[in-house]
Amino acid sequence: MKVSYVDILLAPDEALRSLKDRPVWGVALALACAMTIVGTILIVPAMQEALTRDWPSIVARTPALSSLDPALLKSRLQFSVAALKWAWVYAAISMFCVVLLQAAALRLAALVFKMAGTFKQYWAVACNVAIVAGFAALTRAAIVVIAGAENFRTADSVKNAIPSLALLVPGHTGHLAASLSFYDPFSLWQAALLAFGMIRVGKSSLGVGIAVALTILTVPALLVGVLGH
Predict the structure, then answer these.
(1) For the segment 192-227, what is each residue's pLDDT rounded down to a tens digit?
(2) Nearest to residue 137, comparing CAs of 34, 6, 10?
(3) Phi then psi dihedrals of residue 45, to 5 deg
(4) Are 16 and 23 in contact (CB under 8 A)?
(5) Which of 20, 73, 133, 209 is 20–30 Å from 110 (CA)?
(6) Helices (DSSP H) in 61-86: which residue ranges?
(7) Among 227, 219, 197, which residue's Cα sits nearest to residue 210?
(8) Which residues contact 194 (CB under 8 A, 6 or more apart)?
(9) Three-state SS at 61
(10) Which phi and psi (to 5°) does residue 2 adopt?
């Protein structure tokens, strides 16, 4: 059965069943990266404006910066603003790394729980699920462009334009907010697809599939909360 790449969004069960027999991934990964790159490029102007606006606050709470002379601080700001033009490169590399880690985690879980599925099959699942992440990047860009850059006071607020559990934290800042920002509608959507990928490819139980998918989502969130953002 031939399944189109948009089926991971519209008919995920059929798409995941198809990947078990035909673990195609190249076009899916390219599409996910392309959407992520476009979405990132569209939010760069807002991120640059927000960083410039928030710079005095960043300097005030960063001892390594607050001790520098004004001319050097201005140079640092100009460099940081200019570097944001290349944020799309970081986004594309991050996309590939996340997909690789997800595929490895799925395969490791399959080995631990003695389930079926090869690395290539789980790699195909992760690549196709990444299309949701690309769709999230475009949605974030749409929100930022429609709302206007003036409504975002920090670069982090631009990146977190999609509502998440971080809204539960007063001020939406700090380590806890950084961790909770991982839990938004699109990340939960991806987790659900990864869970069903375990079920369709690995023939796991629903409980195991959900547990593995939530672990994949939660581990990086906890790392961000512990190490900072």
Answers:
(1) 999 999 999 999 999 999 999 999 999 988 887 777
(2) 34
(3) -55, -40
(4) no
(5) 133
(6) 63-66, 70-83
(7) 197
(8) 102, 106, 125, 126, 129, 209, 212, 213, 216
(9) coil
(10) -90, 130
